[in-house]
Amino acid sequence: xxxxxxxxxxxxxxxxxxxxxxxxxxxxxxxxxxxxxxxxxxxxxxxxxxxxxxxxxxxxxxxxxxxxxxxxxxxxxxxxxxxxxxxxxxxxxxxxxxxxxxxxxxxxxxxxxxxxxxxxxxxxxxxxxxxxxxxxxxxxxxxxxxxxxxxxxxxxxxxxxxxxxxxxxxxxxxxxxxxxxxxxxxxxxxxxxxxxxxxxxxxxxxxxxxxxxxxxxxxxxxxxxxxxxxxxxxxxxxxxxxxxxxxxxxxxxxxxxxxxxxxxxxxxxxxxxxxxxxxxxxxxxxxxxxxxxxxxxxxxxxxxxxxxxxxxxxxxxxxxxxxxxxxxxxxxxxxxxxxxxxxxxxxxxxxxxxxxxxxxxxxxxxxxxxxxxxxxxxxxxxxxxxxxxxxxxxxxxxxxxxxxxxxxxxxxxxxxxxxxxxxxxxxxxxxxxxxxxxxxxxxxxxxxxxxxxxxxxxxxxxxx
Length: 464
Fold this sequence. Notes:
Layout: E1 20-27, H1 33-43, H2 49-61, H3 77-82, E2 89-94, E3 99-104, H4 112-119, E4 124-130, H5 137-148, E5 153-159, H6 168-184, E6 201-205, H7 229-235, E7 249-250, E8 253-255, E9 267-271, E10 276-278, E11 282-286, E12 290-299, E13 302-304, E14 306-308, E15 312-317, E16 328-331, E17 338-348, E18 354-355, E19 359-364, E20 367-381, E21 386-389, E22 393-394, E23 399-411, E24 423-427, E25 434-440
Parallel strand pairs: 1-3, 1-4, 4-5, 5-6
Antiparallel strand pairs: 2-3, 7-16, 8-9, 9-15, 10-14, 11-12, 11-16, 12-13, 12-15, 17-23, 17-25, 18-22, 19-20, 19-24, 20-21, 20-23, 24-25
């Protein structure tokens, strides 16, 4: 494909049978997430015969006449014993119109961090609500997490409509309350749109147990004229034009074959995180700031003139400059800023607390550096979105603001601009445990932190 013949249409993936949608389910305990997933798999003919037979056998052993479709995702013994979801269960299925990667996440408060894991790469989140209970605390928490993680689309699935006699008024009241709360999250440009497909939140009344409006339209809710859950999943727009975003290329590996056939070959391999790169582009290598020009792009063993996210390619630069794993190659005109003071909103996912002064490793794309937690200005209360100032530490499932000082400069985008290059992990250097998932910038929370203070002296080299 030549540069001159490449158009915006060439760079946009068709949202047809070959497109992929990553989505997650969330909601309070016993709202029916696993049953919805099971019904979705069953009614879309995505369950193998031996899987269905195993579910039927397990259901009979539990004294149930009908197959418990929740068992298709709840595979842990503790999950089946308690009738709850504990870990994130991933399922892969496809219809003639689209392929799907589904993450069924837990509903308990203590497993909120698992919802963060499942939704971190999702393009859509299905938030379930029990029609009998309406919007509860955990519903608001999951909506806030979806907004915090910049999940582009949310489906409000009002489940168990069969238990409220399929009343339209019940559905309308729940949808109105949830929409009002979603609006209070204050994420710019996310509230609604003229086209229903452009809205951040789409409400659908369902009965996962009976199958109403999951895959097939309900015969008992003729007052609802919108799509079923599967119809919405198949048609929601999720593929953006990559040329709308600035190019970001984290270097994963330096290729130097030094063979007789390729004596001077030097390539930088990795996956394009965002945007489009073309032969001839002027680029900057960060954090060093050295500049060069893209001399060649190799993809699947062939030279090409243009490549775009999320392709994995090898770049060749016109100049022999020092580039190594962890460096970021970006267009010179739109390169991100480089900093050692990282201010971010984080979700703490480890059982051990995160405290001020703690030494950590910060992993950003392909780069890992030493860091110190210099400040924890606030902890977010998701019920009312208020800030608890200076908590001192964050414990499991807490979401808060932190300031981290790194040993080496990092090229970060704001998470609001790029979910890929604006995110990072904090890791325990002693055992490699993931402590915290971070989102650079303010997300939807107001930044309350002052600039990070200067580091003090440390004999072990952890103050910067």
